[in-house]
Fold this sequence. Notes:
The complex is a heterodimer of chains A (217) and B (343).
Chain A: H1 3-7, H2 12-31, H3 33-36, H4 39-58, H5 65-68, H6 73-85, H7 97-121, H8 128-137, H9 140-155, H10 159-184, H11 193-212
Helix pairs in contact in A: 6-7, 6-8, 6-9, 7-8, 7-11, 9-10, 9-11, 10-11
Chain B: H1 2-10, H2 21-30, H3 34-41, H4 49-73, H5 84-114, H6 128-137, H7 156-175, H8 185-210, H9 217-238, H10 244-268, H11 273-297, H12 301-308, H13 325-342
Helix pairs in contact in B: 2-4, 4-5, 7-8, 7-9, 8-9, 8-11, 9-10, 9-11, 10-11
Membrane topology (chain A): Multi-pass membrane protein
Domain Yip1 (chain A): 57-210
Protein name (chain A): Protein YIPF
Amino acid sequence: FPGLADVSISQDIPVEGEITVPVGSHSPDEDYSTLDEPVRDTIMRDLRAVGKKFVHVMYPRKSSALLRDWDLWGPLVLCVSLALMLQGGSADSKDDGGPQFAEVFVIIWFGAVVITLNSKLLGGTISFFQSLCVLGYCVLPLTVAMLVCRLVLLAGAGTISFIIRLIVVVAMFGWSTLASTAFLADSQPPNRKALVVYPIFLFYFVISWMILTFTPQ
Amino acid sequence: TGTMAAPGGGGRNGAPAAEWGGFEDNMQQGGGSAVIDMENMDDTSGSSFEDMGEMHQRMKEEEEEEAEGEAGAGEEEDGEFLGMKGLRGQLGRQVADQMWQVGKRQASRAFSLYANIDILRPYFDVEPVQVRARLLESMIPVKMINFPQKIAGELYGPLMLVFTLVAILLHGMKTSDTIIREGTLMGTAIGTCFGYWLGVSSFMYFLAYLCNAQITMVQMLSLLGYGLFGHCITLFVTYNIHFHSLFYVFWLVVGGLSTLRMVAVLVSRTVGHTQRLILCGTLAALHMLFLLYLHFAYHKVVEGILDTLEGPNMPPFQRVARDIPVVSSAVLNTTAKAIAMTL
């Protein structure tokens, strides 16, 4: 077979070929190696990421960690816990338990989507899910306020408790708005910051109002 | 033509490159050309010639790469790198991969065509000072109605005003402990406000079309949206200070001012007395009646029920049958008395 002499490859290349091709076919295995790790490691890694983001919200500095690896676990947990705590707060519990949970859920997610669309339309550079992530995580101060309000209401429902609740809710509302503004307003042209801040203000105001007017049965 | 097709058709079945030769050339040239891209945009099926040609070309190239890799591995499969064993595994996977790429490309093309929010971008191009100026202007009626007044086609201000109205409505419903069955408070508030803004705008746009008024849909949305500023102020004040007379004063003054402004702008853009009358009468009626509805339907209905239980007539705005034990027992007593009297 004289023709095959041209086709045959020199002695060096098979060695390179053998080294490169198996490594190339092993790389999918390396990607799947996180499948083999114990479940505890996966959960701890995700929990640590969520916890780090909580810390970023409570002490809002100009870091891009919240934006870079966005995730929606934290907002989901916060939204569900807030909705659960806001339940059972009006006259009839038999037909008001359902709608209240749905109300809070819809308000938070629909409001976050609208604010994101608004900031994109105003010329923002932040992506859809990054904005959802930031807005969801900044509900954390208000969830803390809800917890405090519930504890205060356990002690009594007089004027003093109302004043305490008012102060706590207003403080947490301010914190939420400032935290989310610190992350979101940077992505806007400087003279339009007010246009982006107003819907965020309205969004957290509605949530704070729901927390403040909560009276358990 | 017969002689040309035979060598291509009767030969190998694994590499139909010769049959698609003409299209391959097209593909190489048309890869960056906008003309061919536009043609592809209309294509909704997954089996266009260009895509099939591209698919086969890529499959052939990848087969050749695999072939080189496996030939480098040596052993007995030197002559069999295009054999059935290799083909079955690699070919199936690559066909699936290529179908996924083609589908993804077409889906992203359709998405960028239809779900493009950049269509709305020019309507949000405002500065905060402009928004503030327009808010204040919406309460000042213009005097010059013989000259068409300029309406800014902007959607940011109206949208924010509608959301503010929703928030105020929610506050009003919560303080009056309105209970909505078969729905949620938030859903009712959003549905009412957005329904008014979008529905009445469309209706007025339709009337304006009938009456030959010079106004576009976006301008109508913007005009009506800014007219809601008066509603927001009125409701914000009267949901917190509960005097009916105060509400009527605000209704006339604030509602009236914003209605006058909208009416003046519309009149300046319409020709003919009858048309002006129709348009402005409808707009004024709907605007003022909406404010009246918002105040009475969502606010302190409890007072209404308790006040009118003395007389035999029930009030027309019975939006909520509030289930308080006192009220229900009082209602039961009244009904029992009425039934006893008729017997």
